[in-house]
TrEMBL record:
Keyword S-adenosyl-L-methionine listed: no
Pfam families per the UniProt record, alphabetical: Cystatin (PF00031)
Name of the featured protein: Cystatin domain-containing protein
Keywords (A to Z) from UniProt: Acetylation, Cytoplasm, Protease inhibitor, Thiol protease inhibitor
Molecular function GO labels: cysteine-type endopeptidase inhibitor activity
Protein's organism: Pipistrellus kuhlii (Kuhl's pipistrelle)
Principal location listed in the UniProt entry: cytoplasm
Lineage: Eukaryota, Metazoa, Chordata, Craniata, Vertebrata
PROSITE patterns from the UniProt entry: CYSTATIN
Presence of the UniProt keyword Cytoplasm in the record: yes
Length: 101
């Protein structure tokens, strides 16, 4: 799941059940930041970046043609920290490419 080069961002991949679980775990953090509830929250694709842990850039469908991009940080296992929503971009479309943000 992680990219081979430390610091580099992987190619875009279809979202997996694991990526959906990561998105679900930070959904409430995003809803709090944007002051909005998302009845639909479906991860569709992602990129990952290996750092001291892993950054996940996830495209999430929140309505028929409304998407958000979220950046989630997963710390190294020995740090035993919760997943954290580090940044997000709203008003995205299905065609918008995931990029570093």
């Amino acid at each position: 799941m992680q990219c081979n080069v430390r610091g580099g961002i992987s190619d875009t991949k279809p979202a997996t059940a694991e990526i959906q679980a990561i998105a679900d775990k930070v959904k409430s953090q995003l809803e709090e930041k944007v002051n909005k509830k998302y009845p639909t929250f479906k991860a569709t694709e992602y990129k990952s970046q290996l750092v001291a842990g892993t950054n996940y850039f996830i495209k999430v469908q929140v309505e028929d043609d409304d998407f958000v991009h979220i950046r989630v940080y997963e710390s190294l296992p020995h740090e035993n920290k919760a997943l954290a929503l580090h940044d997000y971009q709203t008003n995205k479309t299905k065609q918008d490419e995931l990029t570093y943000f």
